[in-house]
Amino acid sequence: MHLEGEGDHGRAGAGLQPLLDLPLELRVPSGVGNEAMIQPSLRASLRSKVRSISRALLLLCAFAPVSLTAQQPAGTALTGVVFGPRGEPLYHVQVLLDAVDLVALTDSSGIFRVEGITPGPHTLTFTKPGFEARSYRFTLPNQPQPDIDLGALMLDRLRESLTTVTGTVVDSMTVEPVAAAQVGLDGEVEVISDANGVFRVDAVRAGFHTLAVRRIGYEPTFVDFEIPTGQARVNLIVKVKALPTQLAEVVVEGERTIYSSGKLREFYDRMSSGFGHFITRSAIEKSSARVPTELLYGVPGLQVIPGAFGRNTIRLARVTTGCRSPRVFVDGALIRGADIDEMLNPQDIAGIEIYTRGTEVPPTFNIQGAASCGVIVIWTM
Length: 381
Prior knowledge:
Elements: H1 8-14, H2 40-63, E1 76-83, E2 94-97, E3 101-105, E4 111-117, E5 120-127, E6 134-140, E7 148-154, E8 162-171, E9 182-185, E10 189-192, E11 198-205, E12 207-214, E13 221-227, E14 233-240, H3 264-271, E15 277-280, H4 281-286, E16 302-305, E17 313-316, E18 327-330, E19 333-335, H5 340-343, E20 349-355, E21 375-380
Parallel strand pairs: 1-7, 8-14, 18-21
Antiparallel strand pairs: 1-4, 2-3, 2-5, 5-6, 8-11, 9-10, 9-12, 12-13, 15-20, 16-17, 18-19, 20-21
Helix pairs in contact: 1-2
């Protein structure tokens, strides 16, 4: 049945009109008589009742609400493909409708399909870890729409954030701060801990890193750590283990005069004599040397040869039979086979004397044939 407006009620009632003109015939049980038809008075009574029922049916068809079941539209479907900034399809991008419901995920080709979107205003949001979220606002009209292809959509990667790494170097036994410790990050950046053992490295990228900490008298310590993406600061506590250092027995002969101005009095007296090469504390502070051997670059008669893992070797420019490396004294004591880069930091040094010719070596340091090899004398703070 199809009804269109009020005029249809008349046509619906017309279908019931034949009920009013039906011949009424009632059968009676056998034995009542040969007369099969009912008496006219009874026929008239029944016809009146049928007319009443017909009028009631007409009223129901005219005024009662008619319920029709129609096929409602299933909603509009949106399709598209999501790419990264280099044109690569993005897999498993979350597609959210109105920032609440997860309605789709992109496949390995970056394609998505969202179905059943009803008319009205909506927001479609695309998110994926490591990428900036992107939202689109749109309004679907009330009229049924075919599938809508949004085409290619692009998500930009999150801007790389840089992190500040801070920390404190402490003694593993006493938990006291360790000053002047060399702190290297990934073998590239190197800083020195201050008097409170504190160090700081700026502009570090997110990811995995290795911190290497060295200090005279302590075992080298390595710390692996990770910086999460977006974290602004990372603070570390680095514990270093003290390492006992056994030095060979040194016998010093002669007299040593202690001046009121300290042990550097002789250093400055010899510097004024004009023999040898001298590096003062002022020159050390102005240099960018990371290890003591780097302070010796450019000294006449010496060669500083770079080695693996930052280990430099000191050689005499003129080769003397049986002696290629100069003798090293620290605070007046001869140190044999020592690596001064492992023993000292430039911050610990007050002055350096260098004598590459035997005739220049002061008698104080002409011990066990040291004059023939040249002498380097280091005075600490």
